[in-house]
């Protein structure tokens, strides 16, 4: 059974199979069909991570140390083999399963038959050497040969390295990066391509278990996304830095820490790593920043800072066996003085970019602090004018004590508390959906800029940016979710204004209360529906990107020029995206139906209808006060309501444009509609800001009756949640666009300018 720590697998839209146990000759045997699910839940505990992978015809056979076996029928014959997963959520990707079984991936077969001229990728050339070794460490070569390693032995692409209980190994690679693996470790070197003349290339390794440390070399200095370490719970993107971590046994926390590294001049520098999995992305850019996680389906947590002593205590052995990088020894190696200066320039720009990003983070923290300060200040003000004065003449105190009870307005305000609470939840749901779209756009966008310019595709930076903009266009268009969040916050402001009046005895009419309730019900439905659509769109975008990259690489192998490769890649996106969304919605609808008993199946073409209902609801609120003398002249309420009407109108336009983006059948249309949706979402946020300006709690709350004090505290807290979530959501997609632009700028050596622009954009937000 899947453990509770497995994470939100339903949110990924992926199906899971646990196989069928088959009686045997005393040995456990479980059989799966390769096409039965997206994920195969294999073994108990960490059985999968230590199993031997064997090809038997078209089947995959896994053999555990205890003799138990797993057979996946047809694994090497299906078009998209499923990933394998442990009960706690550690994943062995299908690409890694192929390598562990010694089976080339289909695209690798095509590449081997093609004319490969890159000397760095020639078959049989070492990519590194063993520098230090303790105890027993073995290697399984790509051809299946198993041998014990010794100091000085060569390391090749495709090697699987396995350390024993007492085994430790330190390796130096040809780009001068260094790596160490601790006891009971297991790793596979997926790719190492390096051109010494340009100091460019790619490095990727898979870590299945064990403690490790890594210091990046020349490759990370030339390309911020060219070095990756993959673990069963996350992928680590290395950007010129030193990393230490542990891929733990099943149920234990996997640990990843960022460390400072010493340059040739003895200065300590700190780079950056990104840690991403199915559920989210986190960036570490401070010395000692550390995260712990146990599942590929749970978002990486916020980092904590560990002291050097804490890190040394945990990782002393693996750090001791790590070879010293040549630059840190003062060895000039094969690099000349000009190259050293270029490396220093890159480091300087990375440091400036890191500083700018830290400033941006601080600005975000300041924004949050402002929200909390406003809430606390408003509470104090309310407390001051609601508390009864005890500085009364004695006879007045006695009179007050025996006076009839004052009117109780709490029941009237309580209805509005429920309304604001529902609006707040709708803003949160839609805002979280928007953040998911933004995170996907940022993550995939940066991947595209890096991978599309690599040798296997060969696009220019400008062409890669064009492709990234197209593939992430649907995520940008789903800023419509942020527009729904902004509308919910605006309605919350109107209800908050109404609560101040109710607290003074001006109870809203039944018609007004019903209109407000109807509107937040429409907002709740719209938020849940757009959340489902974003989940489907995220899955579709990831699959579309896989198709785009595959077709682009095929075009490159066929000898196409870069213009033709770009055209092929764009067509792969527009020809497949709508179908991918519709297929993904089938899975997402099924998952939502399990979560909500009243769930109605949705299509992506329903998006603007969700928001139409919200628009109608806001109109009904306005109609409810047409003939009401008090509410018709209540400027703050009317101002917030007018802003909510504007937000809903813009949200509707954003939704319609998002629909058109998803359904577009050519690149120009997809980009154009995405820009429209993004623009209308921005207008919805402006309207939310106007609604906020109309509702000044410190002024409007004066004179409210003490009977509503408790209710009013709740309503203010719910409203502030709605406001902060809407603000966070609408800026999320903007930040992802900035990230994409910054990635291109970095590739074009413009990181310093991009950092300044990004910081200014945050400060101006």
Low-confidence stretches: 1-8, 108-123, 327-355, 357-407, 746-756, 758-765
The structure class reads: alpha+beta
Total DSSP helices: 20
What percent of residues are in strands? 15-25%
Helix content class: 40-55%
Rough shape? elongated
User: What can be said about the biggest beta sheet?
Assistant: 17 strands, mixed
Ends distance: 47 Å
| Average pLDDT number | 77
What is the CA-atom radius of gyration, in angstroms?
29 Å
In total, how many domains does the architecture comprise? 3
**How many beta strands in the DSSP annotation?**
28
Summarize, please.
The protein is an alpha+beta fold.
Task: Walk me through this protein's architecture.
A hairpin with a 4-residue loop joins β17 and β18. The chain is an alpha+beta fold and 765 residues long. α11 (480-502) packs antiparallel against α19 and α12 (510-557) runs antiparallel to α13. Helices cover 52% and strands 17% of the residues. The protein has a 17-stranded mixed β-sheet that branches.
């Amino acid at each position: 059974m899947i453990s509770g720590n497995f994470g939100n697998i339903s949110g990924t839209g992926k199906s899971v199979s646990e196989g069928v146990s088959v009686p045997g000759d005393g040995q456990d045997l479980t059989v799966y069909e390769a096409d039965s699910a997206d994920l195969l839940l294999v073994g108990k505990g960490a059985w999968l991570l230590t199993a031997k992978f064997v090809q038997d015809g078209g089947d995959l056979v896994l053999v555990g140390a205890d003799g138990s076996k797993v057979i996946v029928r047809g694994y090497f014959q299906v078009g998209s083999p499923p990933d394998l997963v442990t009960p706690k959520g550690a994943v062995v990707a299908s690409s890694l399963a192929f390598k562990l079984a010694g089976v080339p991936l289909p695209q690798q077969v095509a590449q081997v038959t093609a004319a490969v001229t890159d000397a760095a990728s020639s078959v049989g050339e070492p990519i590194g050497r063993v520098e230090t070794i303790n105890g027993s460490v073995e290697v399984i070569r790509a051809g299946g040969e198993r041998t014990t390693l010794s100091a000085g032995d060569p390391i090749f692409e495709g090697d699987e390295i396995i350390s024993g209980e007492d085994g430790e190994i330190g390796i130096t690679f040809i780009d001068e990066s260094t790596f160490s693996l601790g006891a009971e470790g297991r790793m596979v070197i997926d790719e190492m391509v390096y051109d010494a003349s340009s100091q460019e290339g790619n490095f990727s390794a898979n870590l299945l278990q064990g403690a490790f440390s890594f210091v990046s070399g020349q490759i990370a200095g030339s390309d911020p996304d060219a070095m990756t370490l993959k673990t069963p719970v996350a992928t680590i993107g290395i950007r010129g830095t030193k990393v230490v971590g542990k891929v733990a046994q099943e149920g234990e926390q996997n640990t990843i820490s960022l460390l400072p590294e010493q340059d040739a001049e003895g200065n300590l520098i700190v780079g950056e790593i990104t840690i991403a999995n199915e559920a989210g992305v986190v960036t570490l850019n401070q010395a000692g920043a550390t995260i712990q996680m146990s599942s590929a389906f749970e978002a990486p947590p916020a980092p904590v800072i560990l002291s050097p002593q804490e890190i040394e205590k945990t990782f002393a052995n693996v750090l001791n066996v790590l070879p010293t990088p040549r630059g840190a020894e003062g060895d000039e190696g094969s690099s000349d003085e000009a190259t050293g200066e270029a490396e220093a320039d890159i480091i300087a720009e990375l440091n400036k970019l890191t500083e700018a990003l830290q400033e941006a983070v601080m600005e975000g923290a300041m924004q949050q602090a402002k929200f909390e300060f406003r809430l606390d200040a408003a509470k104090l003000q309310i407390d001051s004018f609601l508390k009864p004065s005890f500085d009364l003449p004695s006879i007045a105190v006695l009179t007050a004590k025996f006076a009839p009870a004052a009117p109780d307005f709490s029941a009237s305000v309580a209805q509005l508390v429920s309304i604001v609470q529902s609006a707040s939840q709708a803003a949160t749901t839609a805002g979280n959906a928007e953040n998911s779209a933004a995170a996907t756009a940022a993550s995939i966008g940066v991947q595209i800029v890096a991978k599309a310019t690599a040798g296997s595709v060969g696009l220019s930076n400008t062409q890669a940016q064009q492709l990234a903009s197209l593939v992430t266009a649907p995520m940008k268009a789903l800023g419509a979710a942020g527009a729904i969040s902004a509308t919910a916050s605006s309605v919350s402001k109107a209800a908050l204004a109404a609560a101040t009046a109710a607290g003074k005895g001006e109870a809203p009419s039944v018609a007004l209360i019903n209109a407000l309730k109807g509107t937040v019900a429409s907002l709740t439905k719209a938020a849940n529906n757009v959340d489902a659509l974003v989940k489907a769109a995220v899955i579709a975008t990831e699959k579309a990107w896989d198709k785009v990259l595959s077709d682009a690489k095929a075009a490159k192998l066929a000898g196409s020029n870069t213009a033709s490769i770009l055209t092929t890649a764009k067509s792969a996106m527009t020809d497949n995206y709508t179908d991918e969304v519709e297929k993904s919605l089938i899975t997402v609808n099924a998952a939502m139906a399990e979560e909500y008993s009243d769930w109605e199946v949705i299509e992506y073409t329903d998006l603007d209808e969700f928001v139409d209902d919200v628009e109608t609801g806001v109109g009904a609120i306005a109609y409810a006060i047409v003939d009401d003398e008090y509410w018709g002249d209540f400027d703050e309420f009317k101002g917030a309501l007018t802003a909510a009407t504007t937000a809903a109108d813009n949200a509707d336009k954003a939704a319609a444009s998002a629909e058109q983006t998803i359904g577009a059948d050519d690149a120009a249309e997809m980009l154009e509609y995405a820009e429209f949706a993004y623009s209308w979402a921005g207008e919805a946020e402006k309207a939310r800001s106007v609604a906020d300006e109309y509702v000044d709690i410190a002024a409007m709350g004066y004179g409210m009756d003490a009977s509503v004090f408790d209710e009013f505290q709740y309503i203010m807290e719910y409203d502030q949640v709605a406001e902060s979530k809407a603000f966070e959501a609408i800026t999320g997609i903007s930040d992802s666009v900035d990230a994409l632009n910054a990635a291109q700028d970095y590739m074009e050596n413009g990181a310093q300018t991009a950092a300044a622009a990004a910081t200014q954009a945050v400060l101006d937000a």
